[in-house]
Amino acid sequence: MSRVLVTGSVDGLGRAAAEALLSAGHGVVVHARNQERAAVLRPLAERGADLVVGDFVERAAVRRVAAELNDAEPLDAVIHNAGVWSGPAVMPVNVVAPYLLRALLRGPRRLVYLSSGSHFDGRPSLDRVDWRGERAGSYSDSKLYVTALAAAVARLRLEALSNAVDPGWVPTRMGGPHAPDDLELGHRTQEWLAVGDEPEALTTGGYGYHRQRMEPHRAVHDEALQGRLLRALAAETGTEF
To answer: Do the beta carbons of residue 241 and residue 156 sit within 8 Å?
Structure first.
């Protein structure tokens, strides 16, 4: 059995993934951004899940969560599910937090980054990106960057399996009640990549949709863009990849 951190697991895809992993017998660490939202996770804690709390808008909170996790039982996998659709928190939560967690956490050999079909509309440019969240960020850009981050981790950290997943446009709080895709299928791929033992689940550097490997935006595998992204995030956080 594996031990898996699922960020942003209060509701939606993160909650569904955490519940499914618990039901399968895996150790799960759930995450909420504050104590009020953490109360919603009590049923999962009663089933054996561990809990971390931290608002990923704040880099100090990401560091605190990473330190807490490093002092606990080692993680086998991380599903970077926490995400924001709009507003100034887009870049800090969708890109900076996954970067910083990867740089700080010891142990996880499998990393799953939540992407989106919206990444195809992202701009492969880092000019004037506001990483600190002082103004509203572009969701499409953030998903292009985090998909490129997943590919960079796969290329540069051969000891880890790193993949990005498009869960589809599913009926969550973010996706809205009329989203057309299947919520159940929306979270199965990240669980499979986090704990599955089939050869297809033991690959790296992919971009998947419903267990099918797809071609992402062509900029995702641009090593020059990956390098600029890693350097920008290292400079912003003061933490080298």
So the answer is: yes
Q: What is the CA radius of gyration of the chain?
A: 16
What tokens appear for 203 in the block? 């690959």
Q: Is the pLDDT of residue 180 over 70?
A: no
| pTM (global) more than 0.85 | yes
What pairing do the DSSP bridges indicate for beta strands 207-209 and 212-214? antiparallel
User: pLDDT tens digit string along 200-225?
Assistant: 999 999 999 998 999 999 999 999 99
Torsion angle, alpha carbons of 56, 62, 68, 71, to 10: 140
> How far is it, in rounded angstroms, from Cα 224 to Cα 134?
27
Contact in structure between 146 and 166 (CB atoms under 8 Å): no
Return the pLDDT at 170: 45
Burial of 25 (0-12, 13-18, 19+ CB in 10 A): exposed
Catalytic residue (choose from 99, 113, 139, 209): 139
One of 143, 145, 207, 209 is an active-site residue; which one?
143
Please tell me the predicted confidence (pLDDT) of residue 241: 84
Q: Which two tokens stand for residue 197?
A: 């033992």
Phi, psi of 110 (to 5 degrees): -130, 130
Query: In the numeric block, which tokens belong to residue 198?
Result: 């089939």
1-52 tens-digit pLDDT: 999 999 999 998 999 999 999 999 999 999 999 999 999 999 999 999 999 9
Q: What angle do CA 118, 119, 122 make, to 5 degrees?
A: 105
Q: Is 128 exposed, middle or buried (0-12, 13-18, 19+ CB in 10 A)?
A: exposed
Active site residue 139: yes
